[in-house]
TrEMBL record:
Protein name: Orotidine 5'-phosphate decarboxylase
NCBIfam families tied to this protein: PRK00230.1 (NF001273), pyrF (TIGR01740)
GO cellular component: cytosol
Pathway: Pyrimidine metabolism; UMP biosynthesis via de novo pathway; UMP from orotate: step 2/2
CDD domains for this protein: OMP_decarboxylase_like
Organism the protein comes from: Paenisporosarcina quisquiliarum
UniProt keyword Lyase present: yes
Higher taxonomy: Bacteria, Bacillati, Bacillota, Bacilli, Bacillales
InterPro entries linked: Aldolase_TIM, OMPdecase, OMPdecase_AS, OMPdecase_bac, OMPdeCOase_dom, RibuloseP-bd_barrel
Residues annotated for substrate binding in this entry: 11, 32, 59-68, 122, 184, 193, 213-214
């Protein structure tokens, strides 16, 4: 992935809101389309953003039986997103099938979308994981386990919090992507996130890419806040 710009989560409910938000930006961005926007606007929101020249992370977090995920990924591959994801909790076979589907659906001569797996959501605490998911490991161990499983399945990386990025780098290697949401500026509202960090800490902990939503989209001046996040992130392109 050459584009190391902060990924802006376009968590809006309609295309008009997205266009309104994007209007003041005079550069090509890396944006994320999540389930809120995708479920309202459908696949054309992805192709439209690509036509506007932006890189797109299509975040649908697929989690189903292997055959269903494989077929869904075969279809999604045709939309031209740069990055897509599944839940690692779907298991090794599901992740392998997701990759097979993407490979089968990518047109000859085109680049296959990168495939990453969500480990433990950044809104999950260790206490919640233990009591609700009944996983008897530390949160760090669970995330690393899911990262290693994703790597075995042939995926390109994982979604994790900044707090686990350095360990994943150590266990899975530098080339295995660590995409980290839960990014907040020091004075931002935390909202529903639990495992958060600033862009500067994300850089020092070795995140490959950061995902930033409300800190930018709900700020009074999104372009200025985006530039601030970018300055603090400051990875070499
Ligand atoms: O896969 C994701 O993108 C994701 C995984 C995760 O563990 N945590 C997480 O927050 N996200 C997404 O990242 C974005 C974070 O948004 P903000 O909390 O507003 O910055 C949202 O669109 C989430 O859906």
């Amino acid at each position: 992935m050459n584009n190391r710009n902060p990924i802006i989560a376009l968590d809006f409910s309609a295309k008009e809101e997205v266009l309104q938000f994007l209007k003041p930006f005079d550069e090509k961005l890396f944006v994320k389309v999540g389930m809120e926007l995708y479920l309202q606007e459908g696949p054309t929101i992805v192709t439209d953003l690509k036509e506007m020249g932006h890189d797109v992370f299509l975040d649908l977090k697929l989690h189903d039986i292997p055959n269903t995920v494989q077929s869904a990924m075969r279809g999604l591959a045709k939309l031209g997103a740069d990055l897509v994801n599944v839940h690692a909790a779907g298991g090794l076979r599901m992740m392998e099938s997701a990759l097979e589907g993407l490979e089968a659906g990518t047109e000859a001569g085109k680049q296959r979308p990168l495939l990453i797996a969500v480990t433990q959501l950044t809104s999950t605490s260790e206490q919640q994981m233990k009591s609700e998911q009944k996983i008897n490991l530390s949160l760090q161990e669970s995330v690393i386990h899911y990262a290693e499983l994703s790597k075995r399945a042939g995926l390109d990386g994982v979604v994790c919090s900044v707090l686990e990025a350095a360990d994943i780098n150590k266990f899975c290697g530098e080339d295995f992507l660590r995409v980290t949401p839960g990014i907040r500026l020091s004075d931002s509202t935390v909202h529903d996130q639990i495992r958060i960090a600033t862009p500067e800490v994300a850089r020092s902990e070795g995140s490959s890419l950061i995902v930033v939503g409300r800190a930018i989209t709900q700020s009074e001046n999104p372009v200025e806040t985006y530039q601030l996040v970018k300055q603090q992130w400051e990875v070499l392109q």
